[in-house]
Amino acid sequence: MSRRAYAHDAVLMMGPEADPRAPGGAITTALCGHWQHEPPCPLAEHHTSAERTDGEVRLHVLFATAPERETEVRELIDEALAAGAFAGPDGTSSFWSLVSSGPGTIAPEERAHAARLAG
User: Fold this and answer.
1) What whole-number percentage of the chain has pLDDT above 90?
2) 3-state secondary structure of 60
3) Domains recognised in the chain with CATH numbers
4) Residue 7: which of 58, 53, 52, 46 has the closest Cα?
5) Contact 91, 28 (CB under 8 A)
6) 109 by DSSP, 3-state: which?
7) Which residues lie below 8 Å from residue 75, measured CB to CB, with a gap of 6+?
8) Which of 1, 14, 49, 64 is the most exposed place for a label (fewest CB within 10 A)?
9) CA–CA separation, 83 vs 95, rounded Å?
10) Overall average pLDDT of the 65-78 stretch
């Protein structure tokens, strides 16, 4: 299967007690069936980064999938984020509110990483 790299960005509101890694776990679970799994990712190789500024968390997801599955992957990411909660490995749940979510841009400094994901 030939994969192409894409980016997806989201903005969430999260309280200070919430783990900013939790949305990435929710995304991995949506795309792979569980946040902890053996590689490769079955639907879309991906990497999620999170940057918190006060109560706002900006997510940037790089993913690679077959072009005909891009929409499916984006919908799964959106559904995971719209759920607004995820329980981490220790059983503690983090909660958030989704502000925005949609296609992003692969930055020049991310191109090598995106190419590795597309493999």
Assistant:
1) 84
2) strand
3) 4-118 (3.30.70.2750)
4) 46
5) no
6) helix
7) none
8) 1
9) 9
10) 97
- Residue 25's CB is within 10 A of a number of other CB atoms, namely 20
Paired residues of 18 in beta bridges: none
Residues paired with residue 4 on neighbouring β-strands, in sequence order: 65
Interatomic CA distance for residues 111 and 95, integer angstroms: 31
* Two tokens, residue 52: 């918190």
What's at 29, amino acid-wise?
T
In this prediction, residue 70 carries a pLDDT of 97
pLDDT tens column, 22-55: 999 999 999 998 777 777 888 999 999 999 999 9
The reported pTM is 0.93
Q: Token pair of 4, please?
A: 């192409």
Give, for 4, the enclosing helix (H) or strand (E): strand 4-14
Furthest CA-CA distance within the chain: 41
Mean pLDDT, rounded, for 61-73: 97
